[in-house]
Design a protein that fits this description.
The structure is a single chain. α1 packs antiparallel against α2 (51-83). The protein is 82% helix and 0% strand. It contains 2 helices and no strands. The longest helix has 40 residues, at 3-42. The chain has helices at residues 3-42, 51-83. By secondary structure, it is mainly α. The protein has one domain. It starts with a helix and ends in a 6-residue tail after the last helix.
């Protein structure tokens, strides 16, 4: 197992994690931005007002993107398992 091999696996793991998490993080970011603009426009400064819409938005995003996310993670794990026989060499 060479250092390049380990670095490549680590890089692919980080890329997969960021790619899979991106839709939910973007949904939370956009919902938070919209609610912040609404709070600034109406001068309602209730901190708890952002939690429920963000939770619902992230949950809906998870439901919509779950098949794609599962495909990405399954592809990554299959690649890892395919490379296991070469690890000891």
């Amino acid at each position: 197992m060479t250092p390049e091999f380990v670095i490549n696996i680590g890089r692919q793991a980080i890329e997969t994690a960021l790619t899979v998490a991106a839709p939910m993080l973007l949904a939370a970011l956009l919902i938070g931005l919209v609610i912040s603009i609404f709070q600034a426009a109406t001068q309602i400064n209730e901190q708890t007002m952002t939690f429920i819409p963000k939770i619902v938005g992230v949950f809906v995003t998870l439901l919509v993107f779950a098949p794609w996310m599962l495909q990405k993670v399954t592809f990554f794990l299959t690649m890892i398992f395919d490379q296991l026989p070469t690890v000891g060499r």
